[in-house]
Amino acid sequence: MLCDKILEDRDFGHLYIIVNRRAVRYTFRPANDGTPKVGIRVTVPPRYDVKDVVRAVEQNRTQLLSMLQVNQTAKDKKTETVHIDWDFRIETDCLLISFIKGTSQKVLFHKEAAQIDKNMHGEEIILKPAILQFVCPPDFDFDKGDRQALFERAIIEGVRLHAKAQLLPRLLGYASRYGIQLNEVKINSSKGRWGSCSLHKQRTFLNSKKSYNINLSLFTLLLPMHLQKLILLHELTHTIYMDHSPAFHAHLNTWLEGKEDAFEKELKKYTTSIFSFVKKE
Ligand SMILES: [Zn+2]
Q1: How many domains does the chain have?
Q2: Ligand 1 centroid vs 238 CA: distance in angstroms?
Q3: Are residues 112 and 201 in the same domain?
Q4: Which residues of 225-258 are buried (b: 16+ CB within 10 A; e: fewer)?
Q5: Is residue 192 in some structural domain?
Q6: Ligand 1 centroid from CA 235, angstroms
Q7: Ligand 1 centre distance from Cα of residue 76 (Å)
Q8: What's phi and psi for 114, nearest 5 deg?
């Protein structure tokens, strides 16, 4: 698609007029052209009238400005990175991560397991979250060399250790409650999904045995407890229904006492990235 005309605009910098043979009306899209103002791409049918396009832009100016606003917010979110320094903190139900000033010239790690109890329904409650502390020299320069990247990796490895210590028994607890046979459970750092479940068929001489493999994202540990439960029970429901059919959701919803939709909605606030959980002042 070639740009037919470029017009100047006081708000958008540039309006790019693009002709599309199949277009029947005007469509407006943000044009991130690298200039300080985000432009607008206007797709128009062949034999369009420039004056009419300008009129349409004028009529829709308010909506177009808010479209660019939404586009910008989404972009800011995507490129969001967090600087790791003394103020970096993660404070979740199950794990606290912080940086503290030490007295030696070495970077030390301090790890403490969570204190966990069970309520009357046999479900885990966290009495005291696990701790992961990085003790750094008092005059430590967080920006020297590739220290930012190294700490990001160290934080992820720390979360992985605590996720193994907490998520595995939590998942196995639910599995044994519902009589589900698991073959293997893995904790990974894959981005984009909280968990997955696959069938593991084992053939022996006499019969074949069905069990399941479950993968969990280590970031699951950083979710509030009730959303961890959503992830764990979601994957366990897949041992009964391998799809996301109405029957699947009905089953999961029973296990979650009718709260699946509410929990799913809340889960949308989080992504499988360490920066999704950093405490913002
Ligand atoms: Zn699923």
Answers
A1: 2
A2: 7
A3: yes
A4: eebbbbbbbbbbbbbeeeeeeeebbebbbebbee
A5: yes
A6: 6
A7: 29
A8: -75, 155
pLDDT at 213: 94
pTM of structure? 0.70
Domain enclosing residue 219, as ranges: 89-276
21 within some domain: yes
Q: What is the pLDDT of residue 77?
A: 59
Ligand 1: centre distance to CA 116 (Å): 28
Closest CA to 267 of 257, 278, 277, 258: 277
Q: Based on the domain organization, do 112 and 73 belong to the same domain?
A: no
Domain co-membership, 127 together with 255: yes
Taking the C-alpha atoms of residue 281 and residue 19, their distance in angstroms, rounded to an integer, is 47
Tokens for 130, please give them: 């696990």
Last residue of a domain, one of 78, 104, 124: 78
Q: Which residues of the chain have pLDDT under 50?
A: none
The rounded distance, in Å, linking the Cα atoms of 66 and 31 is 14
CA of residue 9 to ligand 1 center, whole Å: 47
Does residue 84 sit within a domain? no
Residue 281 within any structural domain of the chain: no
What confidence tens digit (pLDDT) does each residue in 82-133 have? 789 999 999 999 999 999 999 999 999 999 999 999 888 888 899 999 999 9
